[in-house]
Amino acid sequence: MKKEHLILTLCTLFAIAIPLVQSISEGPKGVEKWFKELPHKKQRVTKLHFYFHDTTTGPGQTAYQVFESNISSTTITQFGRTFMFDNPLTVEPDARSMRIGKGQGFFGAASFEEPRFLMNLNFVFTQGKFNGSTLQFLGTNPILNRVREMSIVGGTGAFRLARGIATAQTYFLNDTSSIVEYNLVVLHY
Ligand SMILES: *[C@@H]1O[C@H](CO)[C@@H](O)[C@H](O)[C@H]1NC(C)=O
Ligand SMILES: *[C@@H]1O[C@H](CO)[C@@H](O)[C@H](O)[C@H]1NC(C)=O
Ligand SMILES: *[C@@H]1O[C@H](CO)[C@@H](O)[C@H](O)[C@H]1NC(C)=O
């Protein structure tokens, strides 16, 4: 599992073209064949590590408010206020470091009591052996906690039938942007 992580890091750092684990645009026949072969496939573990850059105002804005409730502006947790985002994923905290994909989806304030978001997004990978593959991410994010644990509930391409755990740790935060460090451990075939 260390190896997979290393391979992703290496091929993202140096943009080495590694053949795809499997074609990701095989169509319905290819997917059927893949399922037929499933009993012979070995489950594997892939570890991913990257930084997620969220910017809610200013020139580099990547997250935009799409709706709110009629109590968002009067509740301490801004209940219901929801942003749709298309956020870069990079190998280092520096936003100018190598991009390995995007985190696309929405987060919204889902608690009356504390700053806690519903997170619903896709990690869309664009580099190396995972180029074109995606992971589906769903969870509850108590954003002030040092470490938050959320679920990987599925995947496509190299990550078909994925399940896993993502941990998030805030690396940087101010009024307009945040950088979140993500560690993913993913079971897939
Ligand atoms: C919010 O909307 C609901 C239903 O439309 C209404 O009953 C309620 O009074 C509104 N609350 C506020 C604070 O405006
Ligand atoms: C990723 O895949 C797309 C579509 O197949 C291709 O156009 C692109 O060049 C690939 N990117 C890298 C870095 O391999
Ligand atoms: C927040 O940090 C970003 C990245 O360093 C910076 O561009 C932005 O100006 C900062 N915003 C505020 C309000 O300090």
TrEMBL record:
<comment type="similarity">
    <text>Belongs to the plant dirigent protein family.</text>
</comment>
<comment type="subunit">
    <text>Homodimer.</text>
</comment>
<protein>
    <recommendedName>
        <fullName>Dirigent protein</fullName>
    </recommendedName>
</protein>
<dbReference type="InterPro" id="IPR004265">
    <property type="entry name" value="Dirigent"/>
</dbReference>
<dbReference type="GO" id="GO:0048046">
    <property type="term" value="C:apoplast"/>
</dbReference>
<dbReference type="GO" id="GO:0009699">
    <property type="term" value="P:phenylpropanoid biosynthetic process"/>
</dbReference>
<keyword id="KW-0052">Apoplast</keyword>
<comment type="function">
    <text>Dirigent proteins impart stereoselectivity on the phenoxy radical-coupling reaction, yielding optically active lignans from two molecules of coniferyl alcohol in the biosynthesis of lignans, flavonolignans, and alkaloids and thus plays a central role in plant secondary metabolism.</text>
</comment>
<dbReference type="InterPro" id="IPR044859">
    <property type="entry name" value="Allene_oxi_cyc_Dirigent"/>
</dbReference>
<feature type="signal peptide">
    <location>
        <begin position="1"/>
        <end position="23"/>
    </location>
</feature>
<keyword id="KW-0732">Signal</keyword>
<keyword id="KW-0964">Secreted</keyword>
<dbReference type="Pfam" id="PF03018">
    <property type="entry name" value="Dirigent"/>
</dbReference>
